[in-house]
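Feature request, filed as a ticket because there's no other form

It would be nice if the structure record came with a short human-readable summary line next to the tokens. Right now we just get the raw output. Example of a typical job, pasted below so the devs can see what we mean:
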Amino acid sequence: MQLPSASQVHQASPLPPNTVLLSTMLSDLSAQPGFDDTFIAALGKQSKTGAAILSPKLLDALRTAILGQDWQGLDRFPGWKMRDIDPAADLAGDAARETEAAAVSQTKRPVAAYIDLGPYALSHSQRIDLDQPSTLPGFSLDGLVGPLGDGVVRGDGPDPEVAPMHSESQRMADVLNRLVVNRLDGAAPATAVLGGREVRTPEDLVRALIGTGHEVTVVDARYFANFGHLHYEGMDVMMPFWVNTQASIPGTNRQLLVPVAHAEYEWFIRGPKVNADVAFYFGIDGRAEFRTMDQLDQAWVMGRHAHEYRGVEAVEVTRLTGLLVQAYAHAHQNHPELPFGGYYALGVCQDGVAAIEKKMTGATTLFPNTADMALFRDPRDAEVNTLLAAIPKDRSDEPPQLERVFGSLPSTDLAAIEIPGLAPDLQAVYSAWQDRARAQGPRREMRSRWILLLRVGALCLIVTLVLRRRRRSQ
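Raw output as currently delivered:
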């Protein structure tokens, strides 16, 4: 497969302000002693930032590209089909034995150990008063941002619009997670109180918020996943994670590569008592839970609201999300041997969002989905098992439907995408796809007419034969 040359890529579209390509940073720093090893080691570690954990196979491919100064390849890394990206597929030998040993040590972990409850305990009852302001600390960069040396920093700073609400947002995320735990075996009950009303489930908390004059909007949000969360000499580093959709780009001998999307549900809560922003997704840390969302996204990541839910629909999405939190905790407890926190095997961030989208809208428009349904058979999670089984899976060589490829993008305006070289490729594939759809429309209509005529003819023939038999019998 042939990629465009570096000059073609740079001419295709400009970079966002204050942004450099990954290849630019690495070409500048490749001569610095030890930086390549530091960089690769950092990407191979568990982190609160970053969109994926690199498997040994992916780390080797990254190292080869850096040492070979394949800057063009780095700006489309790795560019593989989804089947080839499975991070567990290439674990063997010592890595497999380490995974098995870790599994043995985790077998007795309680299910709630896989959900962040903040200050709220599993073992005893609690009454959480949401009528009072949160006493949790405000936003902090601790554990989120750190230097890699040579002017490179990993991690993003605060979003000026959202970070000031961190204390309330963190409490709301913790409370929602704790109310999910009420459903788990052996959990002491927790109660949240708002406006004098006591609630014990996430969906009842949303009902209480709406009932006390709060505006609650739940959003199905889509972004380009930021693989690195890197900054170089104060500039954002563009580092998406590319996959091959296998769709041919008209007029070329290339196939369409797209950056992996990130999808999450977001709760925007505004009102007299609580002002908070909360998100849900299954992350590279192996947790599917409610979280805060107060770090500032880099400009190229963009963002789009595919669906917005209010009122009873917001309550239902919250209920289904709570069930996902529970199901993922059970899956972790049932399968503690899974490497990389179960990421990919249990799905990626899209799977849960796609499953709820299918339930709420009748369609699913996200790619990729990777959940292995053999890991979702716990009878306590029957509803989630059914929802996850209903969405397409991207674990084989079969190409994804283009509806999902384009549905995952963080913008419906393809020309607005500022990742060099991507917009023209997307526009070419999209135009060809729509042309095929328009051409197939008349053919489908003609085929339907012929089918109708054949059915009418068959019915007429049957009626004629019946009438003849009646005449003979008379």
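Something like this underneath would help us a lot:
Confidence is low (pLDDT under 50) at residues 1-12, 92-101.
The chain has two domains: 6-420, 421-474.
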